[in-house]
Amino acid sequence: MPEPAAGAHDGAAETVFTYGAPQLKYGDGASDEIGYDLSQLGCTRALVVTDSRVAATGLPQRIAEQMTRFDVEAAVYDGVRVEPTDESMQAAVDWAREHGPWDAFVAVGGGSSIDTAKAVDLLLTNPGTVIDYVNAPVGGGRAPAHRLHPLVAVPTTTGTGSESTTVCVLDVLSQRVKSGISHPRLRPTLAVVDPLLTVTQPAGVTAASGMDILCHALESYTARPYTASPRKQPEQRVPYCGANPVSDMWSTQALSLLATSFRKAVRDGDDLDARRAMAQAATFAGLGFGNAGVHIPHANAYPIAGQVGDFHPAGYPDDEAMVPHGMAVSLTAPEAFRFTFPASPERHLHAARLLEPDAAEPADDASALPDVLTRLMRDIGIPDGIGSVGFGADDVDELVAGALKQQRLLATAPREATADDLAGIFHRSMALW
Ligand SMILES: [Zn+2]
């Protein structure tokens, strides 16, 4: 019998990382070519998945019409809920099952549309319901047994990176928690990133979704390195393998792009160069975190968004209270990075320098990144901490309980975060400046 390979036994450190990405088409006008791209994939009947606000711009319909020139029949489903829930995704799945069959899906919109399209694709090619596939312990943690149909993701808001990732995020209403479905089969086949589509994004959306980009880059750059995990067997490999040289490259490039474009894109939405840089930053950050993973700010964002009381952010539909994903992620980020600083001081300092190269010397090194973040958040109109979106000290226990449900994310943190550690981060994040 051969000896086991070196390191392939318990206790040995990981030596392997993986990198996955969709095909990418980037640039002004890239979205004019989707019909051709689908025809090249052999597709004949595509469902365009979007929300009513994006549908009102006429863009999804234009994309659908463009497909017919290439003999791809298309219909538009515009019932996506912004910040989707298990129920809204199931409704989309039921609609698609009723009006199928489809052999391709095209998501046009923000992360909500792309994530809903992932769920629709998953459940039109695999049996069961949405909750069966949601990460355990919130859902059934089932893995798709069959391949999915081609999914083309066309982001119209820069931020989520959903066009690059294997994840779809949703609110599970009965448990008042945000969770996700995560599997390599969920990664879109093709990401079409057309900066011209983001020009109409309101300033509040640019600010919140930009903070999401920023946190994707920062969290993947500071994630627990892949070498810190025990060696896995091939069948145990997960899409998020921790910081690695390839994800580091994308994450740091995203930070440099954000440093020069983020404030400009919020201040002047018609600044096309700033929009192009933000679209690139979102793509780069997605290609980084889509492999490395994210950690404490994202784990905390789930209960912040899921337990919102009565907060209505500017730039979003105001019929429902919400803390948009990127805003929810950012609100505890400064304190989360103060907490993770000791795990890799040089990475935290490097990230701060990339984001604000001429920043004044901080009072202490651990404050460098939190200071850069809070200055930026204040400049672009992000609320001053979780207190400003309606949370108080009495809510911390429930927020901690919600964050602790995100074990998949917390496992990527460079330092173990206990319930007490998380409570401290939430308390210190009530007001940030
Ligand atoms: Zn995010």
TrEMBL record:
UniProt keyword Transit peptide present: yes
Reactions the enzyme catalyzes: 4-hydroxybutanoate + 2-oxoglutarate = (R)-2-hydroxyglutarate + succinate semialdehyde; (S)-3-hydroxybutanoate + 2-oxoglutarate = (R)-2-hydroxyglutarate + acetoacetate
Keywords, sorted A to Z: Oxidoreductase, Transit peptide
Entries under Pfam families matching the protein: ADH_Fe_C, Fe-ADH
Positions of the Fe-containing alcohol dehydrogenase-like C-terminal domain: 242-429
GO MF terms held by the record: alcohol dehydrogenase (NAD+) activity; hydroxyacid-oxoacid transhydrogenase activity; metal ion binding
Protein name from the UniProt record: hydroxyacid-oxoacid transhydrogenase
